[in-house]
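<instruction>
Derive structure tokens from the sequence
<data>
Labelled lines for chain and fold:
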Amino acid sequence: MPTFMRAALVILGLLSVGTPAAQAAPTLYWSVSGTFDDGTNFSGIFATNVYGFLQPPLAITTEDGIILGAVYPQPGAPSASIDNATKSIVVFNRPGYNGFFELDFLYDLTVYPASGVNPIVIGALSYECNGYQFAIPNDPASCTRIERYVVSGLATVAEPAALPLIAGALIGLALFSRRQRALAPAGRRA
């Protein structure tokens, strides 16, 4: 067995130790998409950690419809937040609390779901508001102006156990490439 192959297997084995799928990942990267009741869509990415906080990357984009499209979070807006009681509700604010986008998920966002999918709770609990927000979580009546509700959507996340495999494959490719360059005749090197 070539040296680079042995090295790649050793590195892969070391990366795989202590990362079973059932173990909570320190950071989960969620890809989210869905549709509003006005027929427009939203999509984006956000990350959560095991402590119940959002962290970069954070970028959810909504399309123009009954409410003008936006990218959340917006510069100058209060922080995006995750509800610490359930860890399943994410709120993205606009500057001055003049509008927000709330997504309510079926499962805790800090724990990897067995299926890799976390459905959005549709209807009254997931919506975008183009108005002032009262401090009433999970209450669409807190929106003082136009709102549009999510009628379908879900978030998917990469399986934590796959990350060491991907890293191992990349390391293996780098070692293979390095070995090939070292073995190439002097005249063929780029």
In short: The radius of gyration is 22 Å. The helical segments are 3-16, 162-183. Confidence is low (pLDDT under 50) at residues 14-23. The longest strand covers residues 146-157.
